[in-house]
Specification:
- This protein has 294 residues and is mostly helical.
- The protein folds into four domains: 35 residues; 58 residues, no CATH class; 85 residues, Photosystem II 12 kDa extrinsic protein (DNA polymerase, domain 1); 60 residues, Photosystem II 12 kDa extrinsic protein (DNA polymerase, domain 1), CATH 1.10.150.
- The chain is built from 16 helices and four strands.
- The strands form two sheets. A two-stranded parallel ribbon has the order 1-2.
Length: 294
């Protein structure tokens, strides 16, 4: 009796069965839409927003390009930074000009701190490039040179009297014997002598790159200009522009000024006449005169 009652509830008419199938179909469709449809809100992008997004994209591309194109940095001596090198390092034109002006005085920076004092670069840039600074050995071991210098001089003073050697007759082996002068510096000294045709003053050793004041002092202990070398003197009243510009102490601009001054005022009588020319290295006039004839 109870079973027959339940059976009556499961009997559906044709329209009811159709309705049930339609309902199941709707449920399935809704579930498929829920799983596969994108319900995210579609935002309308204004022209200003499009420009900003494009600009952001360009900035990101530029950053990637800079990171990719950034050259690998190797150790270098900051005294010889050129305009291009300084630009690549991030220095301003004014900072580069300060360094070049300092170097034109025949001076050198010997530490990162001194480099900053001369160029006025920022702390952030200095911290970035200072680890790549490479100075000569005598700069990094200056204390060793100074301390050893006194020990060596005392030992020589006790044992024997030092006999000076003419710097223009000194050999590479003679120079290397002096404390602080190695293979490289001895070659530079001899090369400088050849360029000049001979030293006329021990002061000219200051023009040799890498010689510290302590090493020059050591050289003065053992060497000197005992007699003037046979110089091939330049006649400033007859020499051509090319001949004058080839002289070690005359740059092309100065040589041109000399020729111009000579053509307008007549022959030079002495070094005092040359000193009148703008840009002449007056502080070196005393030994430059020995290379010239009038």
């Amino acid at each position: 009796m109870a079973f027959n009652k339940i059976k009556e509830y499961t009997k559906f008419s044709r329209d009811q069965r159709t309705g049930i199938f339609v309902l199941f179909g709707i449920v399935i469709v809704l579930q498929l839409v829920w799983f596969f449809a994108d319900f995210s809100k579609i935002e309308k992008i204004t022209p200003e927003a499009q420009k900003w997004l494009a600009l952001q994209s360009e900035v990101e591309d530029a950053k990637r390009t800079v990171q990719t194109d950034m050259p690998k940095m190797y150790p270098f001596n900051p005294n010889f930074i050129t305009d291009y090198k300084g630009y690549k390092l991030g220095m301003s034109v004014q900072e580069i000009d300060r360094l070049l002006a300092f170097r034109e005085k025949n001076k050198y920076v010997n530490s990162a701190k001194e480099f900053q004092e001369v160029t006025k670069v920022s702390d952030s840039l200095l911290n970035l490039i200072a680890p790549f600074f490479k100075f000569p050995d005598w700069v990094n071991h200056k204390k060793d040179f100074v301390e050893h210098k006194y020990v060596q001089n005392l030992a020589y003073a006790k044992k024997e009297k030092i006999v000076l050697i003419d710097i223009n007759q000194a050999t590479k082996e003679d120079l290397i014997m002096v404390n602080g002068v190695g293979e490289t510096l001895s070659v530079r000294i001899l090369t400088q002598k050849e360029k000049l045709g001979g030293f006329v003053s021990m002061e000219q050793l200051k023009e040799v790159w890498g010689l510290s004041p302590e090493v020059i002092q050591n050289l003065n202990v053992y060497f000197g200009v005992l007699k003037l070398p046979n110089l091939n003197k330049i006649n400033v009243n007859n020499a051509s522009l090319k001949e004058l510009s080839q002289f070690f102490y005359f740059k092309y601009d100065l040589a041109r000024q000399i020729v111009k001054f000579r053509s307008m005022n007549g022959d030079f009588k002495n070094i005092e006449d040359l000193i009148k020319i703008n840009g002449f290295p007056v502080e070196k006039a005393n030994f430059i005169a020995l290379y010239l004839s009038f």
